Amino acid sequence: MKLINRSQIPDTGVSHDPMIRKKVLIKKGRIPKLTNFSQSTIKPGQCCPPHQHPDMWEVYLVESGIGMMILNGEEIPVSQGDCLIVDPGEDHSMRNPSSKEDLLLTYFGIEQ
Predict the structure, then answer these.
(1) Which listed CATH number (2.60.40.10, 2.60.120.620, 2.60.120.10, 1.10.10.10) goes with 12-111?
(2) pLDDT attached to residue 62
(3) Of the residues 38, 48, 72, 103, which has the fewest C-beta atoms closer than 10 A?
(4) Beta-carbon neighbour count of residue 60 at 10 Å?
(5) Residue 51 has pLDDT above 90, yes or no
(6) In the chain, what are the domain boundaries?
């Protein structure tokens, strides 16, 4: 067993945009096929650039705020409680259209 408290984990930038901050709760290699278990804060107006992962699924849970997932060019509004699954190879990005509220996402990746 390993107990981890989010408050003890330093913020780092996401690989697609270092201005978007994340906390990696579980790193790659700790659990087989899990690439990461993380939380990201997307500030008002911020957008994660479009990208894809050819060999993993990503699962997002919207903890708070509102956002826009862009999946293969289609805009999908998301809000607190929504869970999204992005399949391997799907082009995706996330943006926060709010002018006031952060968008908090908890997410993980699973290798094929």
Answers:
(1) 2.60.120.10
(2) 98
(3) 72
(4) 20
(5) yes
(6) 12-111
